[in-house]
């Protein structure tokens, strides 16, 4: 293969590329300057890490955003290295709050893995410490048990400090029935799923009712509880939600002019990317977006869900994040604004160095 010609023709643009050898595994990487990177690896003057002597072929795909490069690099790694791709894609799993429903007396747990079974997951959190802090503060609002043991309830059970402080319904001591405990579990699940909206509405209504009845001490008590709930809710990360609601659309620059790239996510799985035209031949952008995004979402495996959520968290929390993220439920007004912002940013000319 004429590597000198390949290097000359390759654009100095972001890309994901693979260099194939006669034997052994290919060299897979992503870069922001393809020509310069290929010159270092395959150029006739390459010295430190030259693959020219063993290289047989080169494949590359140009990309237009960091997220597109990340997702393509992930796909190629799984394709070329099915047994060892995790060495090439360093995924850092986010943390989740797991509500374990398989037990007769459910409890919460902080975990970094999503699994099957009858559990609900809330997250993602960027760090385990953030997840544990939110879990502890959240449980202070309820009376769910915190002990990790599989309970064998009995009146003579010694209990724990949380039961003594009235922070637990004490199912271990048979202080409540399974039905009564399940009611508290439902309240916790509703709090996590709705982001505390239902609880805040209930407390606000009770406060206003007490205030109208001139019961100011009760109104003050409700107000303090509302403030405590809001303080707990501030501990959530930006993406934190029920995993079945974890979704949205990343609006990214596209490789072609007059296009933007839409990268949807639904319930923790990335969906196929869409190159969306800015010009609609007389159709409004809202109607064209609805037609494009109404497609039936695809679901993958549990392992892929873990991986896709890790990729989302990695991109969203990084300092190099590009494009815009619109969380589900997607507002078409916000989505149109994000598309216009990304299109304007992509069309802005790059600053040129002095003397060029």
In what range is the share of β-strand residues?
A: 15-25%
Proportion of residues in helical segments:
25-40%
Determine Rg (CA atoms, Å): 26 Å
Q: Determine the structural class based on helices, strands and strand pairing.
A: alpha+beta
- Series of secondary-structure elements, N-terminal to C-terminal: HEEHEHHEEEHHHHHEEEEEHHEH
| Uncertain residue ranges | 350-356
If you average the pLDDT, what whole number results? 90
Oligomeric state of this protein: single chain
Q: Can you lay out the helices and strands and say which pair or pack?
A:
Elements: H1 3-9, E1 15-21, E2 27-31, H2 34-42, E3 55-62, H3 66-80, H4 85-88, E4 95-100, E5 107-111, E6 119-125, H5 128-139, H6 161-164, H7 178-194, H8 197-212, H9 216-233, E7 241-242, E8 248-253, E9 259-266, E10 269-270, E11 274-277, H10 285-293, H11 302-316, E12 324-327, H12 332-347
Antiparallel strand pairs: 1-2, 1-3, 4-5, 4-6, 6-7, 8-9, 8-12, 9-10, 9-11
């Amino acid at each position: 293969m004429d590597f000198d010609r390949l290097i000359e023709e390759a654009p100095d643009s972001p890309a994901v590329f693979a260099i194939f050898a006669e034997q052994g595994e290919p060299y897979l990487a992503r870069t922001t300057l393809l020509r310069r990177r290929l010159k270092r690896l395959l150029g006739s003057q390459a010295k430190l890490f030259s693959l020219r002597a063993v290289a047989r072929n080169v494949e590359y795909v140009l990309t237009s955003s960091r997220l597109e490069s990340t997702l393509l690099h992930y796909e190629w790694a799984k394709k070329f290295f099915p047994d060892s791709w995790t060495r090439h894609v360093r995924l850092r799993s986010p943390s989740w709050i797991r509500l374990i429903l398989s037990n007769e007396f459910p409890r919460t747990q902080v975990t970094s893995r999503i699994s099957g079974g009858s559990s609900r997951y809330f997250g993602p959190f960027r760090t385990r410490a953030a997840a544990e802090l939110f879990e502890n503060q959240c449980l202070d609002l309820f009376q769910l048990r915190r002990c990790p043991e599989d309970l064998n309830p009995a009146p003579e059970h010694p209990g724990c400090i949380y039961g003594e402080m009235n922070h637990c319904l004490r199912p271990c001591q048979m202080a409540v029935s399974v039905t009564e405990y399940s009611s508290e579990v439902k309240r916790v699940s509703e709090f996590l799923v709705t982001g505390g909206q239902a609880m805040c509405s209930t407390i606000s209504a009770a406060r206003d009712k007490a205030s109208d009845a001139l019961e100011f001490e009760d109104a003050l008590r409700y107000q303090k509880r509302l403030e405590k709930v809001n303080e707990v809710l501030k501990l959530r990360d930006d993406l934190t939600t029920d995993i079945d609601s974890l979704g949205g659309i990343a609006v990214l620059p596209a490789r072609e002019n007059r296009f933007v790239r839409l990268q949807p996510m639904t319930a923790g799985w990335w969906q196929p990317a869409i190159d969306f035209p800015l010009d609609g031949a007389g159709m409004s952008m809202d109607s064209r977006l609805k037609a494009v995004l109404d497609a039936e979402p695809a679901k993958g495996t549990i392992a892929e869900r873990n991986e896709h959520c890790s990729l989302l968290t990695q991109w969203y929390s990084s300092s190099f994040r590009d494009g815009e993220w619109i969380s589900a439920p997607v507002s078409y007004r916000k989505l149109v604004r994000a598309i216009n912002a990304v299109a304007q940013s992509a069309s802005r000319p790059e600053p040129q160095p002095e003397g060029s």
